[in-house]
Amino acid sequence: MNLFYQPRLPEGIHYLDPDESRHCTKVLRKKQGDTLHLTDGKGFFYTAIITQPDPQRCTFEVTGTQAAPTRNFFIHIAISPTKNADRLEWFVEKSVEIGIDAITIIECDHTERMHIKLERLEKLCVSAMKQSVKATLPQLSGVVALPEFIAHGKATEKFIAYVDPDNPMHLHQMATPHQDYVVLIGPEGDFSKEELALCLQHGFRKASLGPSRLRTETAGLVACHTLHLLNTV
Questions:
Q1: Which range is least confidently modeled, 102-116, 136-150, 180-194?
Q2: What does this chain do (predicted)?
Q3: pTM of the model
């Protein structure tokens, strides 16, 4: 199923933007009277009939609305940007496909790269949401300094993925099902000891993601997948 995105559907906007319109009419060759499947990214799926297959402004008439199933858990990954931009983009794309609710890009003491193309990451989120046929677009925020982020965190269960010889239990052993989670993923040089101490003061708990040393983007995806499995299997 090809899923199209129109975030203003609840406002009565019944047309696709130029990119979506071109894909619909030129690539998929949809015609007047054909059925469309859409989402507003806010938890709803829509069915519609094309009324004007214009490649710049494809209009449609909504024929049905269905709420997507709600989840009783919330996964928020706060991750330092990787030195290679492609790796952060890979994390964003794959975590959305698996099922993530919020991503925040955080600046840490050892962060090596701070220039983030947020607009490109937003487009990747939309693309991954459509590809995996989801109805909710994850929240994407950045860039936030780590002290500012942890000072305003409101999750019920807070974890920091930190590599040291005394790592505690694995994340899947520590997390409780059906909660609001936030997991901090540090840069390639890891969190500084000062950052670790600050996080522990704010109620974060050290969690292991396994015996292997993981790249930043891999650690983020492992954390996301672990919490997803905890709540869905």
A1: 102-116
A2: Specifically methylates the N3 position of the uracil ring of uridine 1498 (m3U1498) in 16S rRNA. Acts on the fully assembled 30S ribosomal subunit.
A3: 0.93
